[in-house]
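Recall that a protein's primary structure is simply its ordered list of amino acids. Everything else, from secondary elements to tertiary packing, is in principle encoded there. The following example makes that idea concrete.
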Amino acid sequence: MRVGARARKTALLRRIRRRKAPSAAARAAEAHAARVHADLADELPDGHLDDLGEDQDLGDFLDGHTPPAGPGADPEAHEELLEQVREARHRIARGY
């Protein structure tokens, strides 16, 4: 292997290693998001926990969630659910 090729390969491997290891701030942000997600799951009624999903982005949930329809549908409970999800999303964005 030529010297120039070896240097490029070494530089490439260093960049890959740096990408694999997230920074401490990124790990802390992921841990915070996981805690907020777990808190939200604890607060939600059982039926809505399945709707939310374990790894689903809260913004995607808000965009794709439709209010329940038909007999027994409770619009106030649905709005409360959306408000809980919005607050959790804001907590994640704020970082505390």
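The chain has a mean pLDDT of 78. Helices lie at 3-20, 24-43, 46-52, 58-64, 75-94.
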